[in-house]
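Consider the tokenized backbone below.
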């Protein structure tokens, strides 16, 4: 099971490069085996072109390495906080994709300006508050996870599968590594379109009934988009 998950996490990390969401050693993908309560994650600071599936690191929910010869991603404790809080998610992606980071640096949520956004996110993509100095100096990565959890506390993480961390960048998630990467790609595209829309003078989000229609025709029990 873990070897299969290592291959899936490895392939998902490479997909970040293919989709132009990361450069050099930026970003990471992880996935969790809920039965074993073990997480597979990208090693820290290793370039994508030099990685193999067997470089993926396995950690437990306390952050202890249980398998692997490299250090896990420096964002591991952030991933752990999300896995603990959101039992529905099976994989997490963090990138520094350009447009999503720009919104995060502006500390602004991304409004639902159109149906492209509404097809994938059932509402604005939230932005967390900025961490305090004490939080940064005491347990930066863990506290980053905590502010994400707080920003999502009144939201369904499967209906809004991504968030911006203030001053930092995006995290996205899904049931599988491939789906988490998909959501990260969509988040970046939505961020780009929203930025362009604001340059053109858009000021108001789409009506709620349009949001409902576009999201629910793709998601939930009454969805009818695509093939059965």
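A designed sequence for it:
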């Amino acid at each position: 099971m873990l070897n299969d998950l290592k291959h899936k996490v490895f392939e998902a990390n490479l997909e970040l490069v293919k989709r132009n969401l990361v450069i050099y050693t930026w970003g990471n993908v992880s996935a969790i085996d809920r039965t074993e309560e073990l997480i597979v994650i990208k090693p820290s600071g290793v370039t994508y072109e030099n990685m193999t599936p067997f470089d993926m690191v396995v950690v437990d929910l306390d952050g202890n390495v249980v398998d692997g010869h490299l250090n896990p991603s420096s964002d591991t404790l952030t991933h752990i906080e999300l896995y603990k809080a959101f039992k529905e998610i099976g994989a997490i992606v963090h990138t520094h994709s350009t447009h999503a980071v720009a919104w995060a640096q502006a500390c602004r949520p991304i409004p639902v300006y159109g149906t492209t956004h509404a097809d994938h996110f059932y509402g604005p993509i939230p932005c967390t508050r900025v961490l305090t100095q004490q939080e940064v100096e005491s347990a930066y990565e863990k506290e980053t996870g905590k502010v994400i959890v707080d920003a999502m506390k009144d939201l369904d993480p499967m209906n809004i599968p991504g968030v911006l961390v203030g001053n930092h960048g995006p995290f996205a998630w899904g049931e599988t590594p491939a789906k988490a990467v998909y959501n990260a790609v969509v988040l970046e595209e939505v961020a780009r379109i929203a930025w362009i829309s604001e340059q053109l003078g858009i000021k108001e989000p789409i009506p709620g009934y349009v949001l409902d229609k576009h999201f629910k025709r793709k998601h939930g029990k009454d969805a009818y988009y695509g093939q059965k």
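The chain has a mean pLDDT of 97.
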